[in-house]
Amino acid sequence: MNNEVFYNISKIIERDSKSTTYKYALLRGVIDIIQDNSPYITFVENRIQIPTGLLVEKWLLYYYPILQSQTSIPQINGEINLAFSSQFSKLILDYEDRGGFSAFYNDLKNKGIPKDLQSEFLELTKKLRDTITKMPMKYIGRSISNDFYSIFNYESQRLKRYSNIDIETLIKGYGTFSIPLEYYEAFKILGSFINGQDSILFKWAQFSVNASGNNLSVDKVLNEVLKSPITERNIAESKKLYKDILKKEGKVFCVWTGRSISNYDIDHLIPFSVWKNNDLWNLLPSDSRINNQKRDKIPTPEIIERQKNLILDYWGIIFESQSKRFQKEIQVALLGNHSFSSWKNIGIYQLQNSCNYLIENRGFEGWKI
C-alpha cells in the first residue's frame, strides 16, 4: 500500500460525481463492512471479495430513517426521487403499523420478512442492488481514471427461490463485488476516520443541507442519518430473554472469572458502543464489579481462550433455548461461509480474530483480568 491509494481516496470523496448521495452510501457501506471485520470477506489474488447483499443491507439501514423522516432531507440534485424511493416508501408505509424501523430490522435479521411483504421487499432490494452496481460502482474512480468500474468489479448471480427471505437471502443471492487489496488495507486502517463526522457522514449531511437551500442544519440531518434500528428497548428485551433462560439453569457463573454469582450484569462481550450488535451470542453474564472494570474495553484473544469453555457453555444454553435466532445471528456475525456444524471452533476463532482486529488495527483498548 502506498500514498497514491490515500490520495486517490481523497480525490474520490472530493471530486467524483456529487449529483446524489450514492457515492457516500457506497463508500460508507464498504468501510462499515470492513470495519465490522465481516467473516464473508475473502481474498482472491490481489483483490478482496464481498457479497453485494451486505451492501444492500447497509443501504436499507442508511436510507430507511432518511426516507421515513418527517423532514425532507434531499439526497439528489435536479430530481425529486432516488431511483428506489417509490419501492422504499411503500415498504416504510407497510411497516408503520408493524413496529417501524426496528421491527423491519428484526424481521430482516431474525424472523424473516413477512410473507405478504416478500414480493415488494425483493423488488426493493433488487432495485437497490441495481442502483449500487450500475451507478456508484460504475462511476467511482472517474476522477482518477476515465475507465468505468475502475475500482469496483461486480459479479452478478441469479437469485434462487427462498421460502424464507432475510439477511442470508441477500448475502447468498445477490452476487459479489471486489475492490483492490490496497484499498481494502487503506479502509481497514483509516476507515473509522474516513467514515467519521469530518468526512463521509459530515459531507453527506452538508450535501443535504445545501440541497435544502440551507433550511436544514447539519445536526438535524446527522441525527436522522445516524439513527440506529436497535433501541434501548431492544437491548432490554434481549437481556431479559437471556436472564429468563439463565433462571432455568440454576447457578450462574461470571464468564470472565468463572466464579458463581447471584447478582450479575448481562455484558456485551464486544461493547455495544464499539459494535452495535445485540446478538444473543454477544450477551454474557458477568459479575457487576468485573463488568464495571471492563466497560468499553475489548476482551483480548488471551482471555477469550482462557474462558472459551464457559463462553461455549453459555452459547450452548442459548442455542438450546433459542436455536433459530442463535444460529442465524452467529452465522452472519462470526461464521460467514463456514458450516454451522463447526460453530464452536470457528465461532471462538472469529471472535478472537474480531477482538484482536479491534485492538491491533482500530486502536481500542484491550482488556483482561
Summarize it:
With 369 residues, this protein is an alpha+beta fold. The protein is 56% helix and 9% strand.
| N-end to C-end Cα span | 37 Å
Q: Widest sheet: strand order?
A: 1-2-4-3
Helical residues, percent: 55-70%
Main sheet record = 4 strands, antiparallel
Radius of gyration: 21 Å
User: Which structural class is indicated by helix and strand composition?
Assistant: alpha+beta
* Mean pLDDT across residues: 90
What is the overall number of helices? 17
Stretches where pLDDT falls below 50 for ≥5 residues? none
Spell out the helices and strands N to C.
HHEEHHHHHEHEHHHHEEEEHEHHHHE
Total domains: 2
Quantity of strands, as a count: 10
Strand content: 5-15%
The general outline is globular
Descriptive overview:
- Helix 2 (22-35) crosses helix 3 and helix 10 (200-211) crosses helix 11.
- The relative contact order is 0.12.
- A hairpin with a 6-residue loop joins strand 5 (252-253) and strand 6.
- The longest helix has 18 residues, at 232-249.
- The chain contains 17 helices and ten strands.
- The protein has two domains: 3-225, no CATH class; 232-367, no CATH class.
- By secondary structure, the protein is α+β, with helices and mostly antiparallel strands.
- The strands form four sheets. Strands 1-2-4-3 form a four-stranded antiparallel β-sheet.
- Helix content is 56%, strand content 9%.
